[in-house]
Write a structure and sequence with these properties.
CATH topology: Glutaconate Coenzyme A-transferase
Radius of gyration: 20 Å
Strand content: 15-25%
Distance between the termini: 61 Å
Largest sheet: 8 strands, mixed
Number of helices: 7
Number of domains: 1
Helix content: 10-25%
CATH superfamily: Glutaconate Coenzyme A-transferase
Order of helices and strands: HEHEHEHEHEEEEEHEEH
Structural class: alpha/beta
Protein backbone atom coordinates (compact mmCIF):
# COMPACT_ATOMS: atom_id res chain seq x y z
CA UNK A 1 0.00 0.00 0.00
CA UNK A 2 1.36 3.41 -0.99
CA UNK A 3 1.57 5.62 2.07
CA UNK A 4 3.40 8.67 0.75
CA UNK A 5 1.17 11.57 -0.36
CA UNK A 6 2.27 14.76 -2.16
CA UNK A 7 0.91 17.21 0.42
CA UNK A 8 -1.21 17.57 3.54
CA UNK A 9 -4.45 18.23 1.64
CA UNK A 10 -4.07 15.01 -0.32
CA UNK A 11 -3.10 13.01 2.78
CA UNK A 12 -6.24 14.13 4.62
CA UNK A 13 -8.60 13.66 1.66
CA UNK A 14 -11.57 11.50 2.60
CA UNK A 15 -10.65 11.44 6.30
CA UNK A 16 -12.13 14.69 7.62
CA UNK A 17 -15.72 15.15 8.73
CA UNK A 18 -17.61 17.47 11.04
CA UNK A 19 -17.82 16.36 14.67
CA UNK A 20 -14.85 13.98 14.56
CA UNK A 21 -12.20 13.45 17.24
CA UNK A 22 -8.62 14.28 16.27
CA UNK A 23 -5.46 13.63 18.30
CA UNK A 24 -2.66 16.12 17.65
CA UNK A 25 0.82 15.20 18.84
CA UNK A 26 3.58 17.32 20.29
CA UNK A 27 4.38 19.11 23.51
CA UNK A 28 3.83 22.85 23.63
CA UNK A 29 4.95 23.93 20.16
CA UNK A 30 7.61 21.22 19.94
CA UNK A 31 6.91 18.36 17.56
CA UNK A 32 3.47 19.59 16.53
CA UNK A 33 2.06 18.55 13.13
CA UNK A 34 1.54 22.15 12.00
CA UNK A 35 1.40 21.41 8.27
CA UNK A 36 -1.48 19.00 8.87
CA UNK A 37 -3.16 21.42 11.28
CA UNK A 38 -3.05 24.11 8.59
CA UNK A 39 -4.64 21.72 6.10
CA UNK A 40 -7.42 20.91 8.58
CA UNK A 41 -8.01 24.64 8.98
CA UNK A 42 -8.23 25.12 5.22
CA UNK A 43 -10.67 22.20 4.87
CA UNK A 44 -13.28 24.05 6.93
CA UNK A 45 -14.26 20.96 8.92
CA UNK A 46 -15.93 22.01 12.19
CA UNK A 47 -17.28 20.91 15.59
CA UNK A 48 -14.06 19.07 16.25
CA UNK A 49 -13.00 17.40 19.48
CA UNK A 50 -9.24 17.78 19.78
CA UNK A 51 -7.10 15.63 22.06
CA UNK A 52 -3.82 17.38 22.73
CA UNK A 53 -1.57 18.06 25.67
CA UNK A 54 -2.07 21.78 25.06
CA UNK A 55 -4.08 24.13 22.86
CA UNK A 56 -1.20 25.77 21.01
CA UNK A 57 -0.79 29.54 21.24
CA UNK A 58 -2.48 32.45 19.54
CA UNK A 59 -1.66 32.20 15.84
CA UNK A 60 0.27 28.93 15.95
CA UNK A 61 -0.40 25.23 16.42
CA UNK A 62 -3.96 24.40 17.41
CA UNK A 63 -4.51 28.11 17.94
CA UNK A 64 -5.07 28.21 14.17
CA UNK A 65 -8.19 26.06 14.56
CA UNK A 66 -9.46 28.03 17.55
CA UNK A 67 -9.12 31.21 15.52
CA UNK A 68 -11.61 29.89 12.97
CA UNK A 69 -13.94 28.39 15.61
CA UNK A 70 -13.53 24.88 14.21
CA UNK A 71 -13.00 23.32 17.65
CA UNK A 72 -15.98 22.40 19.80
CA UNK A 73 -14.14 20.63 22.62
CA UNK A 74 -10.58 20.22 23.89
CA UNK A 75 -9.37 17.20 25.89
CA UNK A 76 -6.13 18.55 27.34
CA UNK A 77 -3.94 18.96 30.39
CA UNK A 78 -2.50 22.45 29.80
CA UNK A 79 -4.02 25.40 27.98
CA UNK A 80 -2.47 28.36 29.76
CA UNK A 81 -0.61 29.93 26.82
CA UNK A 82 -3.61 30.68 24.63
CA UNK A 83 -5.61 33.85 25.28
CA UNK A 84 -8.13 33.04 22.55
CA UNK A 85 -8.79 29.68 24.19
CA UNK A 86 -9.56 31.42 27.49
CA UNK A 87 -11.87 33.90 25.79
CA UNK A 88 -13.85 31.20 24.00
CA UNK A 89 -14.09 29.03 27.10
CA UNK A 90 -15.30 31.88 29.32
CA UNK A 91 -17.82 32.87 26.65
CA UNK A 92 -19.25 29.34 26.58
CA UNK A 93 -18.08 28.77 23.00
CA UNK A 94 -15.63 25.98 23.82
CA UNK A 95 -15.85 22.90 26.01
CA UNK A 96 -12.85 21.66 27.97
CA UNK A 97 -12.19 18.27 29.54
CA UNK A 98 -9.19 18.77 31.79
CA UNK A 99 -6.92 15.84 32.59
CA UNK A 100 -3.86 15.54 34.80
CA UNK A 101 -1.00 15.23 32.33
CA UNK A 102 -0.06 11.69 33.31
CA UNK A 103 -3.70 10.62 33.16
CA UNK A 104 -4.07 12.07 29.67
CA UNK A 105 -0.94 10.26 28.49
CA UNK A 106 -2.20 6.98 29.94
CA UNK A 107 -5.68 7.41 28.47
CA UNK A 108 -4.10 7.75 25.02
CA UNK A 109 -1.68 4.85 25.59
CA UNK A 110 -4.54 2.68 26.84
CA UNK A 111 -6.64 3.47 23.78
CA UNK A 112 -3.79 2.50 21.51
CA UNK A 113 -3.26 -0.74 23.43
CA UNK A 114 -6.93 -1.75 23.29
CA UNK A 115 -7.51 -1.11 27.00
CA UNK A 116 -10.96 0.45 27.48
CA UNK A 117 -10.38 1.78 31.00
CA UNK A 118 -7.99 1.79 33.97
CA UNK A 119 -7.91 2.93 37.59
CA UNK A 120 -5.66 5.65 38.99
CA UNK A 121 -5.23 7.45 42.31
CA UNK A 122 -4.64 10.77 40.56
CA UNK A 123 -7.59 13.11 41.02
CA UNK A 124 -9.34 11.17 43.80
CA UNK A 125 -11.38 13.55 45.97
CA UNK A 126 -11.15 16.43 43.45
CA UNK A 127 -13.38 17.79 40.70
CA UNK A 128 -11.57 15.42 38.33
CA UNK A 129 -13.31 12.50 40.07
CA UNK A 130 -16.87 13.81 39.71
CA UNK A 131 -19.11 11.34 37.92
CA UNK A 132 -16.42 8.67 37.68
CA UNK A 133 -16.51 5.17 39.11
CA UNK A 134 -14.44 4.78 42.27
CA UNK A 135 -13.01 1.58 43.77
CA UNK A 136 -10.72 0.70 46.63
CA UNK A 137 -7.60 -1.39 46.06
CA UNK A 138 -5.29 -2.34 48.93
CA UNK A 139 -6.93 0.28 51.12
CA UNK A 140 -6.45 3.13 48.62
CA UNK A 141 -9.14 4.94 46.61
CA UNK A 142 -8.92 4.91 42.81
CA UNK A 143 -11.03 6.43 40.05
CA UNK A 144 -11.71 4.91 36.66
CA UNK A 145 -10.52 6.69 33.51
CA UNK A 146 -11.51 5.69 29.98
CA UNK A 147 -9.01 5.02 27.22
CA UNK A 148 -9.12 7.35 24.22
CA UNK A 149 -9.33 6.33 20.55
CA UNK A 150 -9.52 9.05 17.91
CA UNK A 151 -11.02 9.04 14.44
CA UNK A 152 -7.74 10.55 13.25
CA UNK A 153 -4.28 11.03 14.74
CA UNK A 154 -1.87 13.57 13.25
CA UNK A 155 1.78 13.38 14.31
CA UNK A 156 5.13 14.97 13.51
CA UNK A 157 8.32 12.90 13.20
CA UNK A 158 11.93 13.89 12.70
CA UNK A 159 12.60 10.94 10.38
CA UNK A 160 10.50 8.35 8.63
CA UNK A 161 10.60 5.96 5.71
CA UNK A 162 8.12 5.15 2.97
CA UNK A 163 6.66 2.32 5.05
CA UNK A 164 5.69 4.70 7.87
CA UNK A 165 8.38 3.74 10.38
CA UNK A 166 8.98 6.87 12.48
CA UNK A 167 11.69 8.38 14.68
CA UNK A 168 11.11 11.37 16.97
CA UNK A 169 13.67 13.66 18.58
CA UNK A 170 13.79 14.70 22.22
CA UNK A 171 10.74 16.66 23.45
CA UNK A 172 8.87 15.88 20.22
CA UNK A 173 8.71 12.31 21.54
CA UNK A 174 6.08 13.45 24.06
CA UNK A 175 2.59 12.35 22.97
CA UNK A 176 3.44 11.74 19.28
CA UNK A 177 4.31 8.01 19.66
CA UNK A 178 1.30 7.10 21.79
CA UNK A 179 -1.09 9.11 19.62
CA UNK A 180 0.20 7.33 16.54
CA UNK A 181 -1.14 4.08 18.02
CA UNK A 182 -4.46 5.50 19.24
CA UNK A 183 -5.94 6.76 15.98
CA UNK A 184 -8.20 4.72 13.73
CA UNK A 185 -6.17 6.39 10.98
CA UNK A 186 -2.76 8.01 11.56
CA UNK A 187 -1.23 10.60 9.25
CA UNK A 188 2.40 11.59 9.86
CA UNK A 189 4.41 14.55 8.63
CA UNK A 190 8.11 13.73 8.40
CA UNK A 191 11.08 16.11 8.23
CA UNK A 192 13.61 13.62 6.84
CA UNK A 193 12.15 11.01 4.51
CA UNK A 194 14.39 8.01 3.73
CA UNK A 195 14.00 4.75 1.79
CA UNK A 196 12.94 1.59 3.64
CA UNK A 197 15.86 -0.04 5.40
CA UNK A 198 17.70 3.22 6.08
CA UNK A 199 16.47 3.42 9.68
CA UNK A 200 17.99 0.94 12.10
CA UNK A 201 15.26 -1.27 13.60
CA UNK A 202 16.67 -0.37 17.02
CA UNK A 203 15.91 3.31 16.38
CA UNK A 204 12.32 2.99 15.19
CA UNK A 205 9.89 4.37 17.76
CA UNK A 206 6.60 4.03 15.86
CA UNK A 207 6.42 0.93 13.60
CA UNK A 208 4.88 1.56 10.21
CA UNK A 209 1.93 -0.73 10.93
CA UNK A 210 0.39 2.15 12.91
CA UNK A 211 0.79 4.75 10.15
CA UNK A 212 -1.49 4.85 7.10
CA UNK A 213 -0.38 8.06 5.36
CA UNK A 214 2.79 10.19 5.25
CA UNK A 215 3.81 13.59 3.91
CA UNK A 216 7.32 15.02 3.60
CA UNK A 217 7.85 18.43 5.27
CA UNK A 218 11.58 19.17 4.82
CA UNK A 219 11.22 22.83 5.83
CA UNK A 220 9.00 22.46 8.86
CA UNK A 221 8.50 25.65 10.85
CA UNK A 222 9.72 25.32 14.43
CA UNK A 223 8.30 27.91 16.78
CA UNK A 224 9.77 28.93 20.12
CA UNK A 225 6.96 29.06 22.68
CA UNK A 226 8.87 30.74 25.51
CA UNK A 227 12.07 32.51 24.53
CA UNK A 228 14.32 32.90 27.55
CA UNK A 229 17.82 34.33 27.66
CA UNK A 230 20.32 34.97 30.39
CA UNK A 231 22.57 37.98 30.69
CA UNK A 232 26.17 37.49 29.67
CA UNK A 233 28.90 38.54 32.11
CA UNK A 234 30.03 42.09 31.40
CA UNK A 235 33.60 41.04 30.60
CA UNK A 236 32.47 38.35 28.16
CA UNK A 237 30.03 40.71 26.46
CA UNK A 238 32.82 43.20 25.66
CA UNK A 239 35.30 40.55 24.57
CA UNK A 240 37.51 40.91 27.62
CA UNK A 241 38.89 38.10 29.74
CA UNK A 242 36.63 36.53 32.30
Amino acid sequence: MKKLYPDAKAALAGLLKDGMMIMAGGFGLCGIPETLIQAIRESGVKNLTIVSNNAGVDGAGLGLLLDTHQVKKMISSYVGENKLFAQQFLAGELEIEFNPQGTLAERIRAGGAGIPAFFTRTGVGTDIAKGKEERTFDGERYIMERGLVADLSIVHAWMGDHEGNLVYRKTARNFNPMMATAGKVTVAEVEHLVPPGEISPDHIITPGVFVQRIIHVPNAVKHIEQRTVRKRPAAAATGGEV
